[in-house]
Amino acid sequence: MTTNDSMDKTGIRVALAVFVALIVDGLDLQVLALALPSLVKELHISQMMAGALSTYTLLGMGIGGIGAGWLADRIGRVRVTFWAIVTFSVTTAFIGFCQSYWQIAIMRFISGFGIAAVYSIGSLLASEYVPTRIRTTVLGALQAGWSIGYVVAAVLSSYILPAFGWRPLFVCAIVPGIISLALLRGVADPPSWFATRQAIRLSGKKENEYAKIWNDKLTRRTFILWCITATALQFGYYGANTWLPSYLVKDLGVNLKNMGWYLAATYTCMILGKVLTGYLADFFGRRAMWVFAGLATAVALPAIMFFATPVSVPYLLLIFGLLYGAPYAVNATYLSESFPTSVRGTATATAYNVGRLGATISPLLIGYAASNYSITLGIALLGISYAICALVPGLFIREKMFDPKAVVADEVKPHGKSMQLAAVESES
Fold first, then answer.
1. Number of other residues whose CB lies within 10 A of the CB of residue 49
2. For 147-185, what is each residue's pLDDT tens digit?
3. What region does 285 belong to: left with phi over 0, alpha with psi -120 to 50, or beta?
4. Which of 121, 164, 167, 418 is most buried as measured by Cβ atoms within 10 A of its Cβ?
5. Domain residues of the chain, as ranges?
6. Are 244 and 365 in contact (CB under 8 A)?
7. The pLDDT value given to residue 423
8. Residue 411: pLDDT band by 50, 70, 90 thresholds?
C-alpha cells in the first residue's frame, strides 16, 4: 500500500468542483420550495399536486443515487459525477421553459438522478483525493456547499421572483453547473480506483458489487448498520427542515418577513456548524464528533421547541442551525472510510439512499402530529431519530477502517480473510 499525506493540485480542483456542484444541489432543492406558490398560481394546480413535485424529486434521487454508486465502481467516479452535474443542471434549467405541470414533474424526477449522484459520488470522489489527516475538514466544508445553495436560492428569489417570476430562477442553476464541469474537465479517477480495477482484471473475478458486500460478513454488517443510520439521520434532518417554516409561522406566530431572515440565519449557522464539526473531527475522531453532534441535537431539539418564544426563537435557532446539520460534516468521511475501494461507491451510495425512506416518511409523520397535536411536538420527537443516528455508529462502527486515498488491492484476501480485515492489517 502507498499513501500520500498531502493534497495535490488535482485534489484541490476536485474539491472545488464538488463544492460548486453541491451548491447547485442545495440551490436546486430550495428553488423549488421557493417557487411553489408562483407555480400553483400560474399553472392552476392544487397544493397536493405542488407538493408531489418534491416526491418526484425524492423518487428520482433514490433511484439515481443507488444506480450512481454501482456505476461509480464500474466506470469511475469522475465520469459519473460529470454526467450527474450535466443531468441536474440541464433539467433544472429546462424547467424555466416548461409549459405544463407534467413537464415540470418529469424534469424534477430526472434531475433527482443527478442531485443524488453528485451528493453521493461527488463526496466519495473528493474523499479519495483528500489525505486522512484533513479529510473531515475538507469534506465538512464541501457539505457546507449544500447549505450555501439554500442561502443563494433565498437571495436570488428575493430579487428574481418579484421582478421576473419563477422561470429565470430555475435557469440560473446552469451557471454554477458549467463552472463545476469546467473544473472537472480533464480530471482522472483516483489512483485507488485504478489500482482496484486493475486488481479485479488480473484476478479474472467478475463478482457483482452487491454480491461482494453481502458475501463478506463484516462488510455486510457495516452496510446494514449504515442503512439504519442513514434512515435515522434523514428522518431527523428532513423532518426538521421541512416543517421549520410552518413551526415559526403557525406555532410561534412569526410573520413571513421575519421568518425569511430567521431561516437565513439558521442556514448560515448550519454552514458554520458543518465546517467546525469537520475540522474538530480531524482532531478528536470521526466517531467522537459524530456521537457528540447527534446526541447534542437529540437533546437540543425538544428543548428548543418547547422553550422557544417569539422573543427567544431567533437566538435559539442559531443553536439549532449549528447542530442539526452537523452530522453531515462527518457523514461522507466516516461512511467512505467504512468500505474497501472495490465496493465503496455501491455501498456508500446505496446505504445513504436507502435512508431516503426516512426523508420521505418523516414530513408525513410530523404532518400527522401537527394535525392531531402540534408541529412543536412533531419536531421535538425528531430528537429520538438523532439519538439513534448517533448511537448506531458510535457503538457498532469503527472509524478509519479503510483509507480511500490509499492505493491497495483490497480484493486480494490473504489466507481467506475478509476484505475488511485484510485492508485493516495492510494499514497497520
1. 15
2. 888 888 877 877 888 888 888 888 887 888 888 899 888
3. left
4. 121
5. 9-427
6. no
7. 42
8. very low
Q: 65 is written with which cell numbers?
A: 443515487
Amino acid at 246: S
Closest CA to 340 of 224, 428, 225, 427: 427
C-beta separation of 366 from 250 below 8 A: no
Among the residue ranges 224-228, 336-340, 363-367, the one predicted with the least confidence is: 363-367
Average pLDDT, the chain: 85
Grid coordinates representing 274 are 458543518
How far apart, in whole angstroms, are the C-alpha atoms of residue 298 and residue 389? 9
Question: How far apart are the C-alpha atoms of 216 and 229, rounded to whole Å?
Answer: 20
Give the C-alpha separation, 332 to 335, whole Å: 5
Residue 84 has pLDDT above 90, yes or no: yes
Q: CB burial class (10 A; 0-12, 13-18, 19+) of residue 33? A: middle
Written as one letter, the residue type at 213 is I
CATH of domain 9-427: 1.20.1250.20
CB atoms within 10 A of CB 150: 25
**253 phi/psi in degrees, rounded to 5:** 75, 25
CA angle at 277 for the pair 272 and 281, rounded to the nearest 5°: 155
Q: Among residues 316, 82, 330, which one has the least CA distance to residue 182?
A: 82
Q: What is the CA radius of gyration of the chain?
A: 21
Confidence of residue 1 (pLDDT cuts 50, 70, 90): very low
The three state secondary structure string of the chain is: CECCCCCCHHHHHHHHHHHHHHHHHHHHHHHHHHHHHHHHHHHCCCHHHHHHHHHHHHHHHHHHHHHHHHHHHHHCHHHHHHHHHHHHHHHHHHHCCCCCHHHHHHHHHHHHHHHHHHHHHHHHHHHCCCCHHHHHHHHHHHHHHHHHHHHHHHHHHHHHHHHHCCHHHHHCCHHHHHHHHHHHCCCCCCHHHHHHHHHHHHHCCCCCHHHHHHHCHHHHHHHHHHHHHHHHHHHHHHHHHHHHHHHHHHHCCCCHHHHHHHHHHHHHHHHHHHHHHHHHHHHHCHHHHHHHHHHHHHHHHHHHHHHCCCCCHHHHHHHHHHHHCCHHHHHHHHHHCCCCHHHHHHHHHHHHHHCHHHHHHHHHHHHHHHHHCCHHHHHHCHHHHHHHHHHHHHHHCCCCCCCCCCECCCCCCHHHCCHHHHHHHHHC
Return left, alpha or beta for 69; rule: phi > 0 is left, psi -120 to 50 is alpha, else beta.
Answer: alpha
